[in-house]
Write a structure and sequence with these properties.
The complex is a heterodimer of chains A (409) and B (99).
Chain A lengths: L4 E2 L3 E2 L14 E4 L2 H12 L7 E2 L2 H10 L14 E3 L9 E6 L2 E7 L2 E3 L3 H9 L7 H7 L4 E9 L3 E3 L10 H11 L3 E7 L5 H15 L9 E9 L9 H13 L8 E7 L7 H13 L4 E4 L14 H4 L12 E4 L4 E3 L4 E3 L11 E2 L2 H9 L11 H14 L8 H6 L4 E3 L2
Helix pairs in contact in A: 3-4, 7-11
Chain B lengths: L1 E6 L1 H9 L6 E4 L2 E7 L2 H10 L4 E3 L5 E3 L3 H14 L3 H15 L1
Antiparallel strand pairs in B: 1-3, 2-3, 4-5
Classes of the chains: A alpha/beta (409), B alpha+beta (99).
């Protein structure tokens, strides 16, 4: 059997078990964030993690950005509990949406200073930062231990069309004959600025490979997780990226779309490292980092997620970063440019999120230099089908949205 | 504070044909009409459309104005050849009556 080596040069091993005595275990119903993290651990997205971190691991990650064994890891993965009846050494059943999801062997129950975590990981203690708020809202007790998935996931439409495990990613790459794969992280509907970022990244990743046939691919890996009011709905993000290749704006021969279950922490530079780790587990060789990668508000400088790689040795990662500047439309050049490649920065027309949003809210079809017509049509179709008429997340959507996946009984 | 009305290619063309030069190109051929408003009009708009979002931090504009209201402003500009601000005031009066 083929061995797939992931982050830290550790083999990717799926942690899936069939068990008959789940009902006899002490059970805890867990929230969506933890369920998604368990799925990501079990399939190897977060390899070499095999479960939730103990005190020593959390402390090492928070202070040094490394696991105690020296492997680079930027964000602690912690399981907070309220239940006081759990004991060290217990094997517990974890249920999600009332159904069995996983089992966990509890190694340690501990406390850790949450304020210290946020200072180090987010470089701020401001409660307005969504990652800070999330961390400070955790319960005060944490449990650590390995987890195993014990149930089959049945992904709903349209997620089922794009779900691939890390091992399946690698098998698809092999079938496509790709030697190099550049990962593109997104939680946005693509405008032409994004499309050109992907195309520039393809050239950068292709390096010295011949171009008689495609040997390099672009993996668009959408982060599916917690949504905030005003974000694009997840279904629209997936379907519009699919439309880019379906209608030939990026050839299917070099394009693959999938997703990772992860709640963005908006930890800027530290989260950029985590994205690199996840995509290296998927088998990618390169990763695009644009402006303000995984940032929020003004907590990080626009290219801080680039600068952190100055402090990371190449041997710590199996993936190479590709740094790109923000694109804009240059009316003088008549195309998508950036400040490194064109000197007309005084005339630049920027693709700001709020600007695109206001165009879409006015239900005006953008010009094809801003958003491809089929992408816009797909967006509006997704809004009708999944967003209760709105391509953006609303309170109503949050209440009524279809689950990403269902679990068997 | 401003109101932005994005224009479809068809409306942009129509305004051009009529010699009405109110459209400003903002991004890749996308044009919009920008109408400056004072606090008095802002308050009237918020009263009439309580779901609008007054965005002072990023766009300095009123977001989520109903499409029907923006369309009425465009209709008045094109049919009655009124300036955008005048058209806004007229549309506002009309919507107040309809309420």
């Amino acid at each position: 059997m083929t061995q797939y080596i992931g982050h830290g040069r550790v083999e990717i091993v799926e942690r899936i078990k069939e068990i008959n005595d789940f009902n006899e275990l002490k059970k805890i119903e867990i929230r969506r964030q933890l369920a998604h993290e368990i799925v990501s651990i079990a399939y190897g997205f977060l390899s070499p993690l095999r479960g939730f971190m103990n005190y020593e691991e959390v402390d090492s990650v928070v202070r040094e950005m490394r696991l105690p064994n020296g492997i680079l890891w930027p964000i602690p993965l912690i399981f907070d509990i309220i239940d006081r009846e759990i004991r060290e050494g217990d094997v517990i059943g974890l249920t999600y949406m009332g159904k069995p999801l996983a089992i966990m062997k509890v190694d340690e129950i501990f406390k850790y200073d949450k304020k210290y975590i946020v200072e180090k990981v987010y470089k701020t203690t401001d409660i307005k930062h969504p990652g800070v708020r999330r961390t400070l809202n955790y319960g005060d007790n944490f449990i650590s231990g390995e987890v195993w998935l014990v149930n089959k996931l049945k992904f709903n439409e349209p997620y089922n069309r794009f779900w691939l495990t890390p091992i399946q990613h690698r098998e698809v790459f092999k079938q496509k004959g790709w030697k190099k794969i550049v990962a593109f992280q997104t939680r946005n509907v693509p405008h032409t600025g994004h499309e050109y970022l992907m195309k520039y990244a393809w050239f950068a990743a292709n390096e010295n490979l011949k171009v008689d046939e495609p040997r390099t691919g672009i993996l668009v890996n959408v982060v599916i997780g917690e949504k905030r009011i005003g974000d694009y709905i997840d279904e629209a993000i997936l379907l519009t990226h699919d439309a880019l290749s379906k209608y030939g704006y990026i050839s299917k021969r070099v394009h693959l779309l999938s997703f990772t279950l992860w709640d963005m922490r908006y930890a800027g530079p530290r989260e950029a490292i985590l994205h690199a780790i996840i995509r290296s587990n998927l088998g990618c060789t390169h990763h695009v980092f644009g402006r303000d990668h995984a940032g929020v508000g003004n907590y990080y400088s626009p290219y801080e997620a680039h600068d952190i790689f100055d402090y990371i040795s190449e041997k710590d990662l199996l993936i190479k970063p590709i740094f790109l500047r923000e694109n804009y439309y240059c009316p003088k050049c008549g195309g998508i440019e950036n400040e490194i490649l064109c000197d007309h920065k005084d005339e630049k027309q920027e693709f700001s999120g709020s600007l695109l949003r206001s165009i879409i809210m006015d239900e005006v079809k953008p010009t094809k230099m801003v958003m491809r017509p089929e992408v816009y049509d797909t967006l509006m179709r997704a809004a009708r089908e999944y967003g209760l008429g709105n391509p953006f997340v609303t309170e109503e959507y949050l209440k009524n949205r279809r689950n990403v996946f269902e679990l068997g009984d | 504070m401003k109101i932005y009305i994005w224009l479809s290619e068809e409306i942009s063309r129509k305004l051009e044909e009529l010699g009405l030069k109110y459209a400003k190109e903002v991004l890749g051929g996308m044009k919009r009409i920008e109408i400056e408003i004072d606090d008095k009009i802002l308050n009237e708009i918020v009263k009439l459309f309580p779901n609008v979002k007054v965005d002072v931090s990023t766009t300095n504009s009123i977001e989520l104005l109903p499409k029907t209201f923006k369309n009425e402003i465009l209709r008045i500009i094109i049919k009655e050849r009124k300036e955008p601000r005048e058209a806004l005031l007229e549309a506002l009066e009309l919507f107040k009556l309809m309420k």
